[in-house]
């Protein structure tokens, strides 16, 4: 009898549990202004590597400020690449906290930058935030200058586990 009761309870619990899924993603879009400071230069072959530090201001879906540490590689053929980890503090969809974002991009010197962003992790109300997208624009053009970019993509909040 105990086995039958246990089996019935197990079946009831399995059938009464509803899985939780993330909803469809929301559109992310806005502006990203940043001030760049270049500090370390390294030369290898025909490539120059520059360590950059940025302070940024996001508007639009992401409302807040950011700091960033990255590397720009300028190749002898005039092409450049960029990768960084950005730390954002502010609000997304009325929720506040911080998140870390991977940012990568490329350009031909003198032309606009294009790149991708991916949210890696978050804290506080943004702990379950996930998202990815693209960014583009003229950038800063050098050290101690303001740069201007636009971003777009998708985001959603994962359900609590």
Overview of the molecule:
The chain is about 10% helix and about 65% strand. It has about 160 residues and is mainly β. It has one domain (about 30-155): AOC barrel-like (Beta Barrel). The chain has an 8-stranded antiparallel β-barrel. The chain is elongated and about 50 Å long. The chain starts with a helix and ends with a strand.
At the first level of CATH, the class is Mainly Beta
The biggest beta sheet reads: 8 strands, antiparallel, barrel
Compute the number of structural domains. Answer: 1
The stretches of 5 or more residues where confidence is low (pLDDT under 50) are: 5-21
Let me know the average pLDDT: 87
Strand order of the largest sheet: 1-2-3-4-5-6-7-8
- One letter per element, helices H and strands E, the order comes to HEEEEEEEE
Assign the CATH architecture. Beta Barrel
CATH homology superfamily: SO1590-like
Strand percentage lies at over 45%
Radius of gyration, Cα only, in angstroms? Answer: 22 Å
Shape: elongated
């Amino acid at each position: 009898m105990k086995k039958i009761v246990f089996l019935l309870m197990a079946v009831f619990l399995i059938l009464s549990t509803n899985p939780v899924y993330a909803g469809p993603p929301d559109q992310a879009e806005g502006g990203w202004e940043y001030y760049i400071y270049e500090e370390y230069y390294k030369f290898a072959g025909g490539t120059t590597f520059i360590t950059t530090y940025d302070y940024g201001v996001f508007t639009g879906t992401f409302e807040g400020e950011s700091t960033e540490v990255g590397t720009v590689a300028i190749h002898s053929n005039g092409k450049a690449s960029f990768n960084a980890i950005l730390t954002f503090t502010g609000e997304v969809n009325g929720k506040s906290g911080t998140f870390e974002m991977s940012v990568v991009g490329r350009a031909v010197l003198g032309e606009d930058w294009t790149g991708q962003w991916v949210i890696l992790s978050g804290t506080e109300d943004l702990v379950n935030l996930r998202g990815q997208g693209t960014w583009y624009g003229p950038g800063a053009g050098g050290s101690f200058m303001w740069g201007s970019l636009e971003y777009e993509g998708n985001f959603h909040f994962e359900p609590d586990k």
